[in-house]
Each structure stands twice: as structure tokens, then as C-alpha cells.
Amino acid sequence: MSFIKIPTKGMRDFTPREMEIREYVLSIMKETYMSFGFEIIQTPIVEHIENLTSNQGGENEKLIFKVLKRGEKLDLEKATNENDLVDSGLRYDLTVPLTRFYANNMNDLISPFRAFQYGTVYRADRPQKGRFREFMQCDLDIFGEKTNLAEIELIEAIVTFLRRLSFNNFEIRINDRRILLAMIASSGLPIEKANDILISLDKLDKILVEGVKEELTRDGYDESKIDAYLKLFMEDSPLKEFCQNFEIDENIVNSLDEIMKQVSEDLDCKIVFDPTLVRGMGYYTGPIFEIRVDDLASSVGGGGRYDNMVGNFINQSVPACGFSIGFERLVLLLEERGFVIPSKKEKIAYVVSDKNNLSNALKKANKDRNNNQIAAVYYRSKNYKHQKEVLESNGFTIIED
To answer: Is 97 within 8 Å of 91 (Cβ atoms)?
Structure first.
């Protein structure tokens, strides 16, 4: 039997130096988010397939890694389709597991509840730069806050975190799902097909207006209504002026305007209204937002309000709002910048040539550790030149003992 030496497509190994940066970013994230009152929770990687295929995950539901039934439940002879073979799957994001968690534990949690969750998620996607099949996701969510305080706190926590990693040239883009729906309705397009229409609109930056029109025409919508709809996006004007072109509740517009003004005033950052911003998830119900960093063409994170999702698990409405940061993309950007972890502990390697020196080296190493330094003891290898080069390249100061 021969072994394959590379990871499965879309999966990765991480070297010690790569893990050093990843752990540092996580530590800054934890410290920042917890200072805003968010509490860490954890949910399983595997979820019931019914939860993952509830039409809440948009296009991601097509990318689920499904898990076969096991033991007596797996009856290959009687199975007529995939549903007879599958009972669970790997989570494609953290939002669905989080809402299930909240529904199970809400009576024991602070209200409003501020959750911080991080962990690996899985999508059977086509791998490309900054996009993998297994990747870390880091989510902030607030349950039980119906006002725009939730959006303001989420955005300000993310901005504070990014600045602590020396990301300063970024733009926050914001929209509201209800504005998008009002634009569809005012154009005469069928509102019951809103999710399908918005999936096409979400591709605007890739296929341009002509491509979106071609898709909607191919889907059978009236061409004059398509033109009326797409014409709305040609307006380059501020939020309130833009929304005068169609019928929309004034409270929705005012609330979005309040979010933008408050965040801009508190943190002096660039936040702009973008009527083309969709966010692909079908579960969003209100404000949606993304953050773009100058070094990267796509966003490094996004989120929005999803007030209806918890109601899928319990018979009551619970307002909810969340944001997911693109952890892998941030780490990739830091690596490309040659990022050096500040105030890193000194690393000392004691290299001993024989057992007679071992006891002395171990005592010195323990003393260093008590002084908050990193210390390791190694026997001198036959190829000492290579051993020394590897240790030094990993940041160790070598002491020969």
C-alpha cells in the first residue's frame, strides 16, 4: 500500500510558523470581542441534515459534505435516493448551529445574548486563492436586541479588531434586505421570486449589468420590468436620496442612516451605502454589511440581521444579528505582508552533545520557562549544521551546552 503525501484537495497542513500567526490573530480576536461583552461558545462540526438543508443557507446548501447513516440505519438495498442514505452533514457555516444552540439554551443565557464562536467549517467548493474546503470561521452574533444597537456594536467590534492587526485601509459597505425587496416590488418583478432574483444580482460585480439582465431574461421575467429594476442601480446617490426612487418605509431608511452616522462618528472610519450589496444568504431580514480591505478584491467579512431563523427552532420570534470575519483571508494578507508578531517571547534552544550535560541544560531551561521564556532542549544531531539552521530559522537562540 502506498501513501499519498499531500492533503485532500481544498484542505491544508499548517507549519509551526503559520500556526503562530493564526494563534496570534485568534488571541487578538478573543481579547477584542470579549472586551465588547461577547461570550465564547462552541458547537459540533456535524449537524442534522434537516437543519443544514432548511433553505436558510442559500447557495451554500449545494456545497454540503454529507455524512452517511451508520450501522442498521444504512440500508443500501431499500435506498431510492440520497435522502435515504444521509442523516447528517458537516456544517457549512456557524450561524445555523448557533441558532440551534440558542434555541436549546436561551433560558439560561443573558439577554440580549452576545455570542462569539470560532471553528472549522466545510464546503465542497472549488478551491482558489483564499478559498478552501476546510476553513476557520469566526462569528459574532447578538440575540434578543431588536434595535440597531446590535448592528452598531457588531461593526464597531470588527473595526476595532482589524485596527489592532494594523488594517486601516478598509471600507464598510452597508445595505438593507428590505430595501432590496422594495426595489424588486417597485419594478413589478414577482416578490415571491426575490431570493432567485437576488442570487443573480449578487453576481453583478462579476457578470456586470448585462450578465444579470441575461440571467433574469433566461429565467422568464418580463424584459421591461428587468430594465426598470436594473435602472434603479444606475443611481449613484446617498442613501436617503436613493430611496426616494421607490416606495420604502421611512423608518427602515432612517435606521440604516443612524447606523452609518454612529459608526462613522465613533470610529472615524469609511462606511458607505451600497444598493448592490446582497449577501448571498437567504436568511437575512434587515441590514446587511461587508468589509473590504484594499489589499484584497473580495470582502474579508460580512453579516447582517436574520430575525426569523431562531423561530425555525422555537415557536417565538427572536431578533438576531451577526457578522463573520474571513479569518483565512486575513491570515493570508498578514503572511503576504511579512507580518511579525509583536512582543514575541524569546525562544532558547539548549543543544547538548552528551548525557553528562543534559541535567544542567534541563535546569537552565526550567529557569527560563519560569521567567516567561520559551526553552527547549535538544541532543546535538550528526548533521549539526542543518539542525542549527532549522532552529535559527524558527526563531531560536542556540546555546551549546
So the answer is: yes
Looking at the structure of the chain, the number of domains it has is: 2
Q: What is the enclosing helix (H) or strand (E) of 67? A: strand 66-68
CB < 8 Å & 24+ apart, contacts of 15-19: 16/394, 17/394, 18/331, 18/335
DSSP letter at 128 equals B
State the amino acid at position 276 in one-letter form. Answer: T
Q: What is the CA radius of gyration of the chain?
A: 26
User: What is the band of 176 on the pLDDT scale with cuts at 50, 70, 90?
Assistant: very high
CA 151 to chain centre: 16
List beta partners, residue 293. Answer: 170
How far lies 262's CA from each of 96, 148, 149, 152, 270, in Å?
29, 10, 10, 7, 12
Instruction: Give the contacts of 177 (CB within 8 A, at least 6 positions apart).
Output: 279, 284, 285, 286, 287, 288, 304, 305
Q: Do 302 and 388 fall within a single domain?
A: no
Distance CA 161, CA 29 (A): 6
Domain boundary among 308, 336, 364: 336
Centroid of chain to Cα 286: 19
Classify residue 277 by its DSSP letter: -
For residue 302 the three cell numbers come to 460580512
* Same domain flag for 280 and 364: no
- C-alpha closest to that of 330 among 202, 198, 138: 138
The model's pLDDT over 342-400, given as tens digits with 9 standing for 90+, comes to 867 889 999 999 888 899 999 999 999 999 899 999 999 999 999 999 999 888 999 99
Cell reading at 316: 417565538
Do 183 and 214 sit in the same domain of this protein? Answer: yes
Cis status, amide bond into 238, omega within 30 of 0: no
User: Under a CB-based contact definition with an 8 Å cutoff, are residues 285 and 322 in contact?
Assistant: no
Asked if residue 342 belongs to a domain, the reply is no
Instruction: Give the C-alpha separation, 265 to 223, whole Å.
Output: 43
**Residue linked to cell 470610529:** 267
